[in-house]
Write a structure and sequence with these properties.
With 318 residues, this protein is α/β, with parallel strands linked by helices. Helices cover 43% and strands 18% of the residues.
């Protein structure tokens, strides 16, 4: 694979009976990270992401772990900070805290007593609360949604100052948030061209905020890629479209062709190269197949695609 050195992780499905097998399998195959999506409520059954990741942490030794991405607006940030700090301790400092605003499933906001219109402000403040509690003891905070004085959160995360925070999203609001507050950015459902343009926007927004970023260095540029490996690219497209249409309750026939990683290994590597050239440094592979087929996809990707990806890169952001 040409281009820069990259890392490759995998997002595993919300199936209790598969978590351990897939996480340990990914580590054995040489993947760099294991991720799990996050919802309080959704169209489909979902586990609590941080609880599931604690289980993954106990079964693995090397891979980074994280939610992709955690809907921080739906949780009290002090409690979230405590849970993430504990996960970092239990995993010996392997957590990456992916954070997003959500909003595509209104019922989970209703159930959590949070207005969707406040989600951006709540996430911004929540990140500040987490960083404050991870960095000092005792600490005080005075915000719009959260106020406390003289609070000590112990034990602190293993990673000094806390796990790196990667901001998920495609909108300009998300890109500004990544530029102002993030240690990285996680894209999804974008073309290589849009990824490159968005990364340029993040650099520009960071300059406006007087926070210069180096996406080739300490700032991580990541991308979630919905993936189906199959010798026939049309079969792969149909499989991905059917899965994603069910998952998100919207038609994905055209979107699968435009945004997904599809087809035989050679075609997958060619597409990965395009994203690397656009600036991606971490891939999160999300196999868009029924849960019982994920193991086969993981094994095939690990055997026929992963060995041809130029691995490594700068140290993980911290």
């Amino acid at each position: 694979m040409t281009g820069g050195r990259v890392r490759v992780g995998v997002e595993i499905p919300h199936r209790a009976e598969l978590l351990g097998l897939l996480a340990t399998g990914a580590e054995a195959l040489g993947f760099d990270s294991v991720w799990i999506g996050d919802h309080v409520a959704f169209h489909n059954p979902t586990l609590d992401s941080l609880t599931a990741l604690a289980y993954v942490a106990a079964l693995t030794r090397r891979v980074r772990i994280g939610p992709c991405v955690y809907l921080l607006a739906l949780r009290h940030p002090t409690v979230a900070a405590k849970m993430v700090a504990s996960l970092d301790v239990l995993s010996d400092g392997r957590v990456v805290f992916g954070v997003g605003v959500g909003g595509e499933f209104a019922k989970e906001f209703e159930a959590s007593g949070v207005s969707p219109h406040e989600r951006g402000a709540r996430v911004d403040e929540g990140i500040a609360v987490c960083r404050a509690l991870w960095a000092a003891s005792p600490v005080s905070f005075e915000g719009r949604f959260t106020r406390f004085a003289g609070v000590a959160l112990e034990p602190k995360p293993v990673q000094p100052g806390g796990p790196p925070i990667w901001i998920g999203g495609r909108s300009d609001f998300a890109l500004r948030r990544a530029a102002r507050l993030g240690d990285g950015w996680v894209a999804y459902l974008v073309t290589p061209e849009r990824f490159r343009t968005s990364l340029d926007k993040i650099r520009a927004f960071a300059r406006e905020a007087e926070r210069p970023l180096d996406p080739a260095g300490s700032f991580e540029a990541a991308h979630v890629l919905f993936t189906v490996v199959d010798d026939d690219i049309e079969t792969a497209r149909v499989t991905a479209a059917r899965f994603l249409t069910h998952q998100y309750h919207q038609p994905f026939d055209d979107l699968a062709r435009k945004y997904c990683l599809l087809g035989p290994p050679a075609a997958c590597l060619e597409r990965l190269d395009e994203f690397v050239a656009a600036g991606v440094r971490t891939f999160v592979i999300y196999f868009t197949v029924p849960a019982e087929r994920v193991q086969d996809q993981l094994d095939r990707f690990g055997a026929e695609v992963l060995p041809h990806v130029t691995r490594g890169g700068p140290p993980w952001p911290s």
